[in-house]
Structure formats: C-alpha cells, structure tokens
Amino acid sequence: MTQTQLAPTAVPLVKKEDSYLDHILAHAKRNNPESIIKETHKFAIERYWLMNVGPEKSPLVEQVLLEKRPKVAIEIGCYLGYSAIRFAAYIRDTLGIQDVKYYSFEISEYHANIARKVIDFAGLSHIITVITGPFNESLERLLSNHNLLSKVDFVFIDHHKELTSNYWRKAGYFTLSVTFSERCFTCHSPNSHACYVLTALPCIQGTTIVADNVIKPGAPVYLEYVRSDPTKYQTRFVEGWLEYYEGVIRDGLEVSVWLK
Ligand SMILES: C[S@@+](CC[C@H](N)C(=O)[O-])C[C@H]1O[C@@H](n2cnc3c(N)ncnc32)[C@H](O)[C@@H]1O
Fold first, then answer.
1. Which InterPro entries match (predicted)?
2. Are 120 and 114 in contact (CB under 8 A)?
3. Which fold, 53-258?
C-alpha cells in the first residue's frame, strides 16, 4: 500500500494547537502582542480554524472595554490565550491602564499550557494569570483562599462552544456552560445555572459582562435570564459574525451591566 492510499485515514501526528504554538514562536515578534494577534489570524485563515473570539467580534468587545476601562477583568475560557492577550494589551496599551489584572480560567491543562507560553512570549505574564481547572471549582478555591478577585469590573464569558450547544442541549439543559452541569443535575433548574457565573462572581455595581456566541451556537436561557429583570441587568445585544466567517455566519455578543 502506498503513502497516498494511507493518507485519508492517517491520524495527524501534531495537534493544531501545537502547530499554532510553533507558528507563533517562529513568526510573531516577542513582547509584541499586536504581531501575535496578526499571526493568529494568519494561522486561523491559512492553516486551521481556531475557536477564539476572532477579528470580527474583538473590536466590539474592545468598544465595551473603552467604555468600561476595567482594572480587574476575568474571562471564562482561555483556549490559547488570544482574547486574554488581545484584551489585556488593549487595556494596558490603548487605554493606558498599566496596573490592570486579567484572570483567565481554562479547564484544559493542554490549552492552558500553550496559552501560558504564548502569553509569556507576548510579555504579558505579569498581567494575565491563567487558572487551570473547571471554572466553578477554580472560582471557589480563589474566593476562599485568596483575595485575588476582590472585585471584578469586566467579565468575558466564552466557554466551550461544542459542549454548550450540543451536549447539554441533547441532555435537555440549555445552559451556558459545561461548568454548570453538576449543578444542573442536582437541582434541575437550568436557569439558575446559566446565571451561576453571574451570581457566583464578586461583581460590583456596574460590572460589565460580555457573553460571546449568544447566536452561534446560542445561549437562550442565559439571554432570557439577563433580559428578564431590567432592575438587575441593563442588557443589550451587539450583532457580529462568527469568528473567521465574516459575511457568512451571524453571531453576536450580549453586553450586560450588573445594576444590583
Ligand atoms: C471558545 S474557547 C475560548 C476562546 C478564547 N476566549 C479566545 O477568544 O481566545 C473555550 C475554552 O473554554 C474552555 N472551557 C470549557 N469549559 C470550561 C470550564 N468549565 N471552565 C473553564 N474553561 C472551560 C475550553 O477548554 C476552551 O479552551
């Protein structure tokens, strides 16, 4: 049997995330977040699609950051560090907030390890902390052991897309995140879990919460929750495109401000 005949069933030896790291280390400039973002787009368009927030929706998030000017930001779902690098650099360099702290939660050790290397290469390790583990457990640990998250002014919710849309939908739970699963199964109240992230965080009056992918794959219970009580959240939808599918697949962000 020839190499050509074997090719279609062959398992790739290198995962795309490892190739991404190699690409960044080889082509981007050290201590230059902008060049890392540029090379990430190049990789995602020319090599493999990546599930980061991407070039289409990031400017929409940056507009929110411009209005909010956060000093303590967190995100749920780090993946390979794209949004952490892009938004932390934007807050520090464009908004001039030198002492910003950005905490990024990531369930996968594999993703977190790559993200830390890219963040270090970007020269942002002193600003961005990647916390490995399921978000709810990490959060509980941080809140009980440290004073790291004494107050949070900006939250970016960007969990695993496939699990959000398919797995839990099949299971009958339209929750925002797999993190909420354990709680879903114990109290059978999807709404309370879709909003767990909001109620569990040490939000303060005015904390801004941006949820990605509320159209694709969608987060109907989350939207219902934040839109149901105008005395609790001031909320708006911002339309955009799915990452790397500009003009093809619609998506959007829900931007909510915690009022009380
Ligand atoms: C869409 S990606 C995040 C993309 C990233 N925010 C960006 O724009 O560069 C989602 C990530 O969330 C992680 N994730 C999924 N469930 C999680 C959980 N319960 N706690 C923390 N991270 C989780 C996945 O492993 C994946 O790396």
1. SAM-dependent_MTases_sf, SAM_O-MeTrfase
2. no
3. Rossmann fold (3.40.50)
